[in-house]
Amino acid sequence: MASLRHGPRPWTFYALATFFALFVLFLYGPMIVIYVLSFQGPNGGMTFPINGFSLHWFKALIEQERTGDIAGAFRRSLVLACIVGALTVLLSVMAGLGFRRRFRGASFVFYMAIASLIMPGLFVSLGIGIGFQMLGIAPAWYTSALGAQLTWTLPYGLLIMFAVLGRFNRAYEEAATDLGASNWQRLTQVTLPIVLPGIIGVALFGFTLSYDEFPRTLLAAGSTNTLPLEIWAMTTNVTSPALYAVGTVTTIVSFIVIAAALTAIALIERRRLRRISAAERTIGED
Fold first, then answer.
1. Is residue 23 a part of any domain in this protein?
2. Which residues of the chain have pLDDT under 50?
3. Residue 101, in any domain of the structure
4. How many domains, in total, are found in the chain?
5. Which domain holds residue 151?
């Protein structure tokens, strides 16, 4: 057994290691190149070698006449992502709690809710845009684009909440009921605090999916662009490292949101462990 444990590694190990290294290089290599090129000087180009080092192209992003309405598109995308994230959390939690009890037609409702995942996003955007125009309502990022993005974020939110609540131990709720808690107290003081990390995960999915969404927003956003649409427009008329600076800024924002969500989950878990330890010490003393 010892010889098997310390013997030479099989060829499959090296094959998988090589594949993983190539995958990481393919995934992150181009992004690293973009980040580096975004810090070029005023005379920098779109390719290597780098000509100087400065924040010139980041400052150029706020000059609307030069790079388009990046600042406005960035604000719209942030607001839209926050709204989509909040609605995704609200509707997913309500649906998850509702599906805890079986009802007639539950399977049909569930499959209809997640069916939009397999629909081409461009056709969803086209249908919503045409529908608004037929109703005499001008498509806009805060109405039609909001609805289009919810068709993308809600199915993920539902799947996450179903998984979280499916693993939830109802003994906690039964104990709260035995102690005289009302339905509202049981929900707000027992159920929701326990599943809060999953709720944060739903909010993270809703925000990031909305922030990066392109096809479902393309024909439903109206006359004003969100950030992905503005970046796409820049690729046709901007031939400067300002385009790379946009990619760097958007990536930083995404990492900040992800880090905030993971930090919140970690703090919640640490607080929960402290409460459990305190309760165990109290029981031991009694």
1. no
2. 1-4
3. yes
4. 1
5. 71-236
- Rounded to whole angstroms, how far apart are CA atoms 221 and 146? 8
- Residue 132: CATH number of its domain: 1.10.3720.10
Of the candidates 242, 251, 244, 250, the residue with the CA atom closest to the CA atom of residue 59 = 242
Q: Read off φ and ψ for residue 15, nearest 5 degrees.
A: -65, -45
Let me know if 173 is exposed, middle or buried by CB neighbors in 10 A (0-12, 13-18, 19+).
middle
The dihedral formed by the CA atoms of 74, 149, 258 and 252, expressed in degrees to the nearest 10: -20
Both structure tokens of 135: 């109703």
Q: Is the dihedral of CA 200, 261, 230, 71 positive or negative?
A: positive
DSSP letters spanning 18-82: HHHHHHHHHHHHHHHHHHHHTT--TT--SSSSP----SHHHHGGG-HHHH-SHHHHHHHHHHHHH
Residue 118 placed within a domain: yes
pTM reported for the whole predicted model: 0.83
Give the model's pLDDT for residue 112.
Answer: 86
SS3 147: helix
Helix intervals (H) in 99-143: 106-114, 121-134
Length of the chain: 286
